[in-house]
Amino acid sequence: MGIAERKEREKEDVRRKILEAAHDLFETHGYQNVTMRAVADAIEYSPTTIYHHFENKDALVEALCFADFEKLSAAMNDQPLPQDPVDRIRALGRAYSAFGIANPNQYRFMFMTAGDWKKHVNEGDTPPAQSYAFLRQAVVEAMDQGFFEKADVDLVSQILWSGIHGVVSLLVTFKPDQFPQVPPRPRLVEASMEATLRGFLAGRKEK
What we know:
Tetracycline Repressor, domain 2; 2 domains
């Protein structure tokens, strides 16, 4: 291994350590309460080293966010997706909800934490934009093939996303005994998704 290659590998190792430490600290203490110095202390490096890799805290948080969105995209494409666009929307919704419920801290960080670090999410082919594109493309095909009535593609996509996000956000925020009167009912995710889809189906019986 040459000197340049070794240095590059060492640089990537330090970056990985920074991201892992920051992720743990944000989960434990919350985004607002973690400083760059705290991240540096966690991996026993100087703050200067952190700034060599990330311009500021927002850049560090953005890198973490993008990494989590890459994991979400991988989860949504873990199995071959159906050709039927409506069934594909169902499959994407199931994978999305399963990811959020299995990774509540990451989900809250990705979708329920505000901050300036989110200002670049739609610039170019970013991981958040890619994950949204899976749903949007399925909606486009559902309209083109006559499954959905023609409408504003992004409005329909956002409604579908809002529906599944609403259920997942409740499930990762409240314990079962904190739901009003009774715990979340079985098939809450599936039933909510079907109810939302039913509003867009163009005169076809739901499956």
